[in-house]
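User: Please write out a complete single-protein record containing the residue sequence and its fold in token form, without commentary.

AI:
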Amino acid sequence: MSKRSFYDEMQDATGGVRAHYKAYADWLVEMPEDRLAQKRAEADALFHRHGITFAVYGEKPDTERLIPFDVVPRIIPAHEWAVLERGLKQRVKALNAFLRDIYHEQAILKNGPIPAEQVLGNAQYRKVMQGVKVPGDVYAHIAGVDVVRAGEGEYYVLEDNLRVPSGVSYMLENRKMMMRLFPRLFSRYRVAPVDRYPDILLNMLRSVAPLGVTDPTVVVLTPGAYNSAYFEHAFLAQQMGVELVEGQDMFVEADHVYMRTTRGPKRVDVIYRRVDDDFLDPLAFRADSVLGVPGLLAAYQAGGVTLANAIGSGVADDKSIYPYVPDMVRFYLDEEPILHNVPTRMCRKPEDLEYVLANLADLVVKEVHGAGGYGMLVGPAATKAEIEDFRDKLKQHPERYIAQPTLALSSCPTFVEAGLAPRHVDLRPFVLSGEEMQLMPGGLTRVALREGSLVVNSSQGGGTKDTWVLEA
């Protein structure tokens, strides 16, 4: 067998099955492919029946799609997860310390490695948050950290998502689907459960209520039914047993937030908001926003309500700040980072720009504010015309881009139209930070269903699969 150029999570370099996949590989031998195809069709029908869809921006408002679900799970052994868990907790702890610092003392900008203009001039930095005290000094209550494997199987953090990270509902629904489709398969493994996530999320949100509130009321704030992640907003509200609200359902009075109910106004103490900063308060940010609550910022600044995540958290997940996260770990925690960053060139630096322009065909170039797989160039998969177009963009606005080597993402066996085949994957674990920090074992595995593709985003043709963390 020829040597693979990427790490295969099920098979080693000789074609042998890795120990943690052995029981599953034996089960696969017993399972005919037509049976797997039947189970995949059953899953699609159930997802559609339950309304587990997503909308794609730029398409008609009523256009919704199923996120393709792969019936082959991704399996992570306990010892690997233990390292990942420590590394993720360390990283999010440092990011929260960074957010507190830049809105208060700004020590890392005065005495550390991060240029002040990179933070204070960032579009996601909110001056209105300077000096604002937030409960427990927690800014990023829910963090979705995208992790990939490359090389000989080393884990790398691809990006941090701290604004309104999505995807956890698919993690939960994927597990429910696998247990429904293949109940006997779970008897071969001790798979760590994920179903307690809504309870843990609610307890975390209650733990960061404003000072003096002993029985906090929590709500989920959604932009509305046309948002691409509306299913998730409704799902999480239902699973936590709290109200799903839109901006028009709430008002501010005397630095407190209230929601309108059939029994009259009810005070709201914690808002799990799935609305971007710019649209939260038309009196403070975008005046044309109809999604937010007038006066919400003033109530937040006064300590009358908690927002999760905090206003201004987005500066810490901006791709221009990403290269400095290992420095944050060292600066705030006095520790060495457990998880690697992907080596990153910052195109605002003349020497980095020169290198990137000379090697565009081999690099991945990303907009610092981009998301969802948009606004990026994957050099090895791009045409000459696309490369030249990006070259012009880089020359005009180098400060808007970073560049990274094209990682050979690890692959997992995936059931596609042609049968079982390796496809590239990433992983988004979810880190919850309140009085304590907790992770669900696993996270959302996204898979690039197109052969050879490295883009796993659902809006770009990717799918999802259940993630099994084995218990020790």
User: Anything to note?
Assistant: The mean pLDDT is 91. Residues 150 and 208 are 37 Å apart (CA to CA).
